[in-house]
# Entry
Amino acid sequence: MSYRVIEQSCIPRNDRRPNEDAIVTTEWFAAIIDGATPKGVSDLEQRSGVDAATAVADTVQQLAPDADLEHFLLAATDRLGGLCARRDAWPAGTPAASALILSVRRREVWAVGDGWVGIGADLHHLTHALEHRLSDVRAARLTAALLEGASVETLRADDIGRAAIEPVLSQEWRFRNRQDVEWGFAMLDGTLPPIEMCRRFTLGNDAIEVRLASDGYPAIADDLAGTEALLRESISLDPLMITSFRATKGVAPAANSFDDRSFLRAELAPLE
# Structure
């Protein structure tokens, strides 16, 4: 094998609920997949993030070694299209996922949606504008409540900031894979993401280390231990996730973090 996985971790934010993240490693690919948190309330919708992550994971496992980004997008869209065939069954949006994929044969990293990509010393934080704006609105609502005298623990149990952005979150799916609107962003959801909205990183021919992480981390370090330490520090200082790192949800009382999280570090051998 021309690459090796140095370390990997996939942890749900709450042991009592399904993990919407997934990691896939094959001979020619390594991927982190992040299923979108469900916005609907039906039993079907509550599993949508897990189902989307599973569908994308299956797609990666079946890719030919020389598959390119365009081929992956078509295959994942077809796989999710079957899952989402009855779109009227998903009033809060069909199942969706982000994916970060290391292609060993092509020596590329593909990014569809949010997450972290570290290539050698270079680090890329991938996120979209709508997520930023909603996080800001949530932070403002919770900050106002704190100024009014509410406690952090009360707001962790009853996230009124999350409630303030729920009307937009429930319509967020309308912006997926749309280049014709200001808030459009790429996502795997059964509609074909425009290639221009995805990212493709070229790794070169030398030996190189690659780090992939889902957006369940506020920052990533050079390794898993350092990345987990950064997360623990962030949660300790700001469990609501409204100051140095703003998110659309905080750390609930029964949770160990604000989101499911995955981290993978791999090393590619040099080309001969």
Notes: Confidence is low (pLDDT under 50) at residues 40-45. Residues 66 and 105 are 6 Å apart (CA to CA). The chain has one domain: 3-268. The first helix runs from residue 43 to 46.
